[in-house]
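Forwarding the complex inputs:
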Amino acid sequence: MTKKENTRKAFGQALLELARQRDDIVAVSADTYKSMRIDLMRAEFPERCFEVGIAEQNLMMVAAGLASTGKTVFATSYSIFTSTRSLEQLRTFIAYPKLNVKVIAGLGGFTAGIEGVTHLSMVDLGLIRCIPNVVLVNPADVTATAKAVKAVAEIDGPAYIRIGRDDSPIIFDESYEFSLGKANLLEDNGVEATIIVSGFMVHQALEAVRMLKEQGIGVRLLEIHTLKPLDEKAIIDAAQKTGAILTVEEHNCIGGLAGAVAEVLVGNCPVPMGKVAVDDIFTESGRPDELRIKYGLTSENIVEKTKQIIEKKTN
Amino acid sequence: MGKENKIMELQRTAARLRLEMVKMLKESDTPGAHYGGSLSVMEILTALYFHTLKIDPANPTWSERDRCILSKGHACAALCTILAERGYFPRELLKTFNHLDSPFGVHPDMHKIPGCDVSAGSLGHGLPIGVGMAMGAKLQKRDFRIYVVLSDGEMAEGSCWEAIMAGSHYGLSNLCGLIDRNGLSLDGPTSQTMTLEPLSQKIRSFGWNVIECNGHDIRQLVDGLEQATCEDGRPTMIVADTIKGKGISFLENDHTWHYGKFDDDQYVQVCHELEKKLQEIGA
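Prediction (whole assembly, two chains):
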């Protein structure tokens, strides 16, 4: 039975640890301080936690204002709101002036689940990726989340971290190496193809690699947790060494990891590339695991698509 | 039926639909529901759908229907219960509430629920859309009215105030908002999260007619809705004082029941309390 833990709680705990060490750390929430686990920091440092109510544009602007006075600001809400509703405020008043605001966006991808179309955030990575000056991180589990939070606190400038909602599989232990902008080679079973994965789908991708190995197909698994800055060298190296790429993400097929990888490959090392992602549709309300199955985000589909891209390479 | 009898009947309907909604949610085995805000809004929706709205359940897209937008879309369980009772679809379909492929879920989907005019759920958007609908009706000299049901928490959204300004600017007397003022949001009392008071005074200062009432008193709601239709030149906002979790003792005024699920013992207690309330008002 896979052990699970909550990425929102992992963020809250990491934030508290940072707040204990540094006076410049402050947090802002939009009726989300409990939901996004800022309650942990608020219990010890209430004077450094600010609530703006259900007002996401104000969330970003207040965060910008606080950052301009020298604070390192963690601003939290749900990813659909931080990436769409208050995107202009993030772009013009945080990214353009390069203010020290770290947006922590919960309920990313299918994790909003039963909340439905109004809350499912399937285009956040694509949108944020297009904003200059914003470091964009898509951690796979609680371990990666905690490390990502601490890593973005060390950089000077804007960052955006997409996390989930409910307890999710623990994939990595403390030995997991996390360095902003550096991809991780998680598995190396051969050179038939490279699966490049980001975020929650690392869990399914690891399973797919194991299934492929059992079928005598040796592939590599490259994890991209930082979509911006992108580890272009690792992507090019994967293409050169294996000649076939499959991207895997919990995101619209347009604009996210697939787009990012394709942009690198086409100018440097064009190879056959496939993708496991959600079709360009709005999807619907459902439990997250049900939605992943319905929309093809499964280990079985990763295996199938990997075989297809290997065949394309061979032909 | 005389007006007083009609009012009493509506009061009983709201109480009965509270119980039906809770039973529906249990039967569907939903992983959770927005109980607090769905219970607080029941009289408001009852007054609208059974007294005020010019609608035809057999013809949900009738072009001259009154529009009703549940801006606080997370009360979708209440809306679905009301729509089923009103005849938009068979009640049995609600067994699938929150199931994959069901038309019914946490937030209303205008493409899937007959009688739903807006896919609300992202707070702060119902009133701006309502303003646009009211402007369209006025421009074309059409008679339908527009009603928007808001939560008080969502009044923190700036988009609400943009709409309030526009509603007054365009003299939208065909627009009526109703705020389910239960005083609580996800993180706690609105007075601590983001102070709204003096709410009525603020809206009035933007040029709206404002009516304050007890949001669980059908007579007061109906009087306010009727008064709104007499306005000429300005929209109306009914600020309805309500209790989050109304009808269930361990939910009332408890913000932690914004969203949750009853265990078996709690469910028994909940049904007992709601049935008792029904008996008290002679249902």
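Chain B touches chain A through 31 residues (CB under 8 Å).
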